[in-house]
């Protein structure tokens, strides 16, 4: 990264070029004794380019589209200029920057645009120094100069586009898709200063960065609270945030909440397409916490039965970074490790509770606890992932093997689930896209929900505040099993609904009228695909696919609204989570985020993390049957 500019390029941009307009006369034609000498260089452009290499101000740089745009990035240093003229320049600049310009400070330099504005052509009344500067900068020489500089910028833009860096490429992708958040002009006005961008990396800390990057990819880390600045730390955090956001199809701040210093960050994470909450005062919860100087740590609460969370008075904390200068010594609840300038405390795994109980016994205990939890609740939130459908005989798309078993034609063509579940296929190869989704639509229409559904419904319907379902399944099995459609929230949409592939009118309609005929062997739709009534384009399922920017989420948003209202009035909720995996953990995270007791039924990933509740390492139907076998349910 360090050598983005060649030595020659760097030299070209930073070396000042002297401009002597040849001096000027006053009205009385006295000798040319009033000098006008300035140096001009492109140091602001170097600052901009250096920032872009770190993924900062990329939009601003890529938006340089004409030689004239470069005038914002030239720097004028005054070498010799009449005192009177300097005073008038100061007054002129001060007038435009009333709150930010100190008229009494010596004038060391100005951006070209700012300087140039001080010398205005006013017809016959033009002051001589103004006329003199205007004659100078309106020469062909200047246009050629800017043109040359612009060619160099275009070369840099290409070079930047080719760099192997996640944040940078993400940013350029957003720019290409016209999805960037920042306004160019505001950015330029705000940042067109000679800021040197302190990008130095603490050499002692490379281990620390590796550890941090590994830690935050763990499944049990859902948020980070770090009241320290530091470009490299924040690049690591925001990189993970954007990756999760893309994987989960959620906005960055929902996919991976990050809490920064209450004074803000120097480099804007929005520049990278991420989002950092800046708490007004104090810190926010997180599984990973950086301990600032002003935060009290109650060491006595980190005893044998204690935890980092208790000692910090924060709910989730399990990993604590403390600056070496503040280190807390040994803590019974955690291991201690020195990494660079930090001490890392890792909370010991939570294992005390079931000590001395055999696995079989412990399972019985858990089932009983689950049953008691359900009995004590006056509202049930049922959250479900793909594992819920497996017991009804639906295929498991986990891993290429599982997926290709269900779709041999796609195996033959080496098309992965990730590739076929892409909105682009509806324009590129609609017969194939609908071959896949048409088959799934038929399959879900023909599937009978397993017995667990009806038992669960009976149980849930008897609760004082009833139930709600939150599911990533698009198969409509809950509705089919008799659950009230108004009590279901489908966070990835529904295959039983359609939308225009262009998203026109934001309209979503039922797929009932579409009866797909599919050649399963070749994964091809044989009849005509459904169409949008409005524009005639091919319609697609109203499902959130991978890299899907056209999913119509209005139906989901409405469901989510009703769910929030229901949660707000229910006082005593228990969550039953069924077959929600870690690969696309939207459902798991949603339940964990709410903080109500959680019954996690999952044969592969039963661990509860820090959530209160019970875990049953079983399939959905087995788990439900076990709970129902306890008298009282
Ligand atoms: Zn349309």
Cα Rg: 32 Å
In spatial order, strands of the major sheet run: 6-5-7-8-10-9
- Secondary structure: number of strands: 21
The stretches of 5 or more residues where confidence is low (pLDDT under 50) are 183-203, 351-359
Amount of helix: 25-40%
Our measurement of the CA-to-CA distance between the termini, rounded to an integer number of angstroms, reads 62 Å
The general outline is: globular
Q: Which small compounds were modeled alongside the protein?
A: zinc ion
- Estimated structural class: alpha/beta
Instruction: State which percent range the strand residues make up.
Output: 5-15%
> What is the average of the pLDDT values?
84
How many independent structural domains?
4
Biggest sheet features: 6 strands, mixed
Q: Count the helices. How many?
A: 25
How would you sum up this structure, described in words?
With 633 residues, this protein is of the alpha/beta class. The chain has four domains: 7-191, no CATH class; 203-347, Rossmann fold (3-Layer(aba) Sandwich), CATH 3.40.50; 352-378 and 572-582 and 592-633, no CATH class; 390-565, SIR2/SIRT2 'Small Domain' (2-Layer Sandwich), CATH 3.30.1600. It is 38% helix and 14% strand. The chain is built from 25 helices and 21 strands. It has a six-stranded mixed beta sheet. The chain has a six-stranded parallel beta sheet with strand order 13-12-11-19-20-21, sandwiched between helices. It has a four-stranded antiparallel beta sheet with strand order 1-2-3-4. Strand 7 (288-290), helix 13 and strand 8 form a beta-alpha-beta unit. Helix 14 crosses helix 25 (620-628) and helix 21 (451-461) crosses helix 25. It is globular, with a radius of gyration of 32 Å. Mean pLDDT is 84; it is low at 183-203 and 351-359. Zinc ion binds next to loops.
């Amino acid at each position: 990264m360090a050598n983005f500019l060649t030595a020659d390029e760097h030299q070209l941009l930073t070396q000042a070029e002297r401009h002597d307009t040849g001096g000027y006369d006053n009205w009385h034609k006295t000798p040319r004794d009033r000098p006008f000498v300035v140096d001009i260089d492109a140091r602001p452009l170097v600052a901009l380019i250096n920032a872009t290499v770190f993924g900062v101000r990329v939009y601003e740089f890529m938006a340089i589209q004409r030689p004239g745009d470069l005038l914002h990035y030239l720097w004028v240093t005054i070498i010799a200029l009449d005192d009177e003229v300097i005073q008038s320049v100061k007054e002129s600049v001060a007038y435009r920057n009333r709150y930010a310009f100190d008229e009494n400070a010596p004038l060391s330099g100005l951006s070209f645009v700012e300087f140039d504005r001080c010398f205005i052509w006013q017809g016959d009344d033009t002051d001589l120094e103004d006329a003199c500067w205007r004659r100078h900068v309106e020469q062909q020489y200047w246009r050629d100069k800017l043109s040359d500089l612009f060619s160099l910028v275009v070369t840099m833009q290409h070079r930047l586009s080719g760099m192997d860096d996640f944040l940078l490429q993400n940013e350029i992708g957003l720019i290409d898709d016209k999805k960037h958040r920042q306004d160019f002009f505001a950015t330029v006005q705000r940042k067109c200063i000679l800021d040197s961008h302190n990008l130095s990396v603490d050499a002692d800390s490379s281990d620390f960065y590796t550890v941090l990057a590994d830690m935050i990819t763990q499944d049990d880390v859902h948020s980070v609270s770090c009241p320290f600045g530091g470009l490299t730390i924040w690049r690591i955090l925001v990189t993970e945030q954007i990756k999760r956001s893309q994987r989960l199809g959620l906005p960055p701040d929902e996919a991976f909440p990050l809490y920064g210093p209450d004074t803000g960050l120097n480099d804007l994470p929005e520049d990278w397409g991420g989002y950092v909450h800046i708490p007004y005062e104090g810190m926010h919860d997180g599984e990973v916490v950086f301990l600032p100087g002003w935060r009290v740590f109650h060491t006595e609460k980190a005893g044998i039965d204690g935890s980092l969370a208790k000692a910090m008075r924060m709910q989730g904390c399990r990993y604590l970074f403390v600056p070496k200068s503040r280190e807390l010594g040994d803590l019974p609840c955690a291991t201690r490790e020195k990494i660079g300038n930090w001490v890392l405390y890792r909370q010991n795994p939570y294992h005390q509770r079931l000590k001395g109980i055999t696995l079989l016994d412990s399972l019985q205990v858990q089932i009983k606890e689950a049953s008691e939890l359900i009995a004590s609740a006056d509202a049930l939130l049922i959250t479900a992932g793909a594992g819920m459908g497996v017991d009804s005989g639906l295929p498991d798309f986990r891993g290429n093997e599982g997926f290709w078993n269900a779709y041999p034609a796609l195996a033959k063509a080496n098309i992965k689930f990730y590739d076929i579940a892409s909105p682009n296929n509806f324009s590129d190869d609609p017969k194939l896209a609908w071959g896949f989704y048409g088959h799934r639509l038929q399959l879900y229409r023909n599937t009978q929900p397993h017995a667990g559904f009806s038992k669960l419904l009976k149980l849930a319907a008897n609760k004082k505040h009833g139930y709600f379902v939150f599911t990533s399944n698009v198969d409509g099995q809950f509705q089919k099993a008799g659950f009230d459609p108004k009590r279901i929230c489908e966070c990835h949409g529904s295959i039983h609904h359609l939308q225009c592939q262009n998203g026109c009118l934001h309209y979503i309609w039922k797929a009932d009228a579409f009866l797909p005929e599919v050649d399963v062997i070749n994964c091809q739709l044989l009849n005509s695909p459904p169409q949008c009534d409005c524009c005639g384009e091919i319609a697609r399922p109203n499902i959130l696919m991978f890299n899907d920017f056209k999913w119509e989420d209005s139906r989901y948003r409405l469901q989510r609204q009703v769910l929030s209202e229901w949660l707000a009035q229910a006082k005593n909720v228990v969550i039953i989570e069924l077959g929600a995996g870690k690969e696309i953990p939207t459902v798991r995270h949603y339940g964990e985020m709410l903080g109500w007791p959680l019954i996690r039924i999952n044969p592969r990933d039963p661990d509860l993390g820090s959530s209160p509740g019970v875990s049953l390492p079983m399939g959905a139907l087995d788990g439900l049957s076990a709970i129902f076998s306890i008298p009282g349910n």
